[in-house]
Design a protein that fits this description.
It is a single chain. The protein has helices at 2-11, 13-27, 34-38, 44-63, 67-91, 104-109, 292-296; strands spanning 122-124, 128-135, 159-173, 186-197, 208-226, 232-244, 254-266, 270-279, 299-306, 311-319, 327-336, 349-358, 370-379. By secondary structure, it is of the alpha+beta class. A twelve-stranded antiparallel β-barrel has the order 2-3-4-5-6-7-8-9-10-11-12-13. α2 packs antiparallel against α5. The two termini are 42 Å apart. The relative contact order is 0.11. The model is unreliable at 1-28, 67-71 and 87-92 (pLDDT under 50).
Length: 382
């Protein structure tokens, strides 16, 4: 009803103004046209006055705006404005686990009621990515100390493509925490797969050089402990992880681990996650890679810095925790493509650059040191 009255108020002056203008136009003397003025050849004064009236009439016709169009455009503008505002408001509605009002770690592990997206939804885990990679070397004849685990030579190239898929789902929540506390512990199932594809090696029919499969079960317990320097401890957790490449001898590689983890953050700018693991023992007859922990490592620390709303820098360090230092370092830069978290707009698409150096870039390369540069696109945090 209010909008209807507003429209009537805006439209009401238009007929009156139009009627006044029409009456004035009827009562005013008709303006001469150009031909009539040109015909006045005997009286120069009348001829000049005629052209003056004709010029004034032309100026009025070009300078007066259309009254009806101006009067009727206001309600349309109001409706258009309301439509745009409604669209912006609808766009600003985000899922709790992608809402920028919550912290990075709270969104990622759904630590609080305000960042909870429920159970059995599909979410991203590690980046889902497609990358070109170039390395300083490639493992043309993978081997391990176990008997029968040395492969014959294959003419692989150092330039290839890498595909990573990684998803998870929350299968339970509120196991040990009370719903009134505002914090949620949770149980997750995750699956990650990473493949190295010899896309540019037509001489050997472009095969997949390696594919690693990594299912895991993870329990996360929320925390909110204030640490020095403005840091907050946000969670602790434990995970059971299996990783294998699904190959038969001599390329078969696999291991099982129990992982302890924790994460902390400082505002929206910094976050650090630490993990330490112990390998579950296997019999020597079944162990494809008995020395894998001495190369891939027994612990890692990952840190990320949100430089601004569009750029994130990261570093991940792994170490064997033994006298002979082995492990790896990974440097990352992620550039947001598309929207961002400002004004409710969000995009999980990133331009992703990585530089890796060390052991364990893939299972089959666990005991071979490599330096790898990768450039590609990744989908994160969905």
């Amino acid at each position: 009803m209010k909008i209807y009255r507003l429209v009537l108020v805006l439209l009401a002056p238009a007929p009156a103004f139009a009627q006044t203008a029409a009456t004035a136009a009827v009562n005013a003397p008709a303006a001469p046209d150009w031909a009539q003025c040109s015909a006045l050849t005997t009286d120069s004064t009348a001829r000049l006055a005629c052209f003056d009236r004709w010029a004034q009439d032309q100026q009025q016709r070009t300078s007066v705006p259309p009254v009806t169009a101006t009067a009727t455009s206001s309600p349309v503008s109001i409706v258009a404005t309301q439509t745009v505002e409604a669209a912006v408001a609808a766009k600003a509605v985000l899922r709790p686990c992608t809402d920028p009002k919550q912290s990075e770690l709270s969104r990622f592990w759904e630590l609080e009621t305000g960042s909870d997206c429920g159970t059995f939804g599909i979410r991203g885990y590690r980046p889902i990515s497609l990358s070109w990679i170039g390395s300083d070397s490639v493992n043309t004849a993978p081997s391990s100390p176990s008997a029968g685990h040395t492969a014959s030579y294959t003419a692989y190239r150092t330039s290839e493509a890498r595909i990573q898929l990684s998803v998870r789902t929350k299968i339970a929540r509120g196991i040990l925490t009370e719903s009134e506390s505002g914090h949620n512990d949770s149980l997750w199932f995750g699956y990650s797969q990473q493949s190295y594809w010899q896309l540019f090696n037509g001489g050997i029919s472009r095969p997949f050089r390696a594919t690693d499969h990594e299912p895991e079960i993870t329990y996360i317990y929320p925390a909110d402990a204030q640490l020095s320097g403005g840091w907050r401890l946000r969670y602790g957790g434990i995970s059971a992880v299996h990783q294998s490449n699904g190959q038969s001898l001599p390329l078969s590689r696999s291991w099982n681990r129990v992982v302890l983890m924790a994460g902390m953050e400082k505002g929206d700018d910094f976050r650090v996650m630490a993990r330490a693991w112990a390998r579950l023992p296997e019999s020597s007859e079944k162990d494809d890679n008995p020395d894998i922990s001495n190369y891939v490592g027994r612990a890692e620390v990952a840190g990320f810095w949100n430089v601004n709303k569009d750029n994130t820098l990261g570093i991940t360090l792994r170490h064997a925790l033994r006298t002979k230092a082995r492990g790896s370092v990974r440097l990352e830069w992620l550039k947001t493509l598309g929207g961002n978290n400002i004004n409710g707009d969000y995009s999980g698409l990133r331009f992703h650059t990585q530089l890796f150096s060390g052991y364990g870039d893939s299972l089959v390369d666990y005991n071979r040191r490599r330096t790898v540069l990768s450039l590609g696109l990744s989908l994160v945090d969905f």
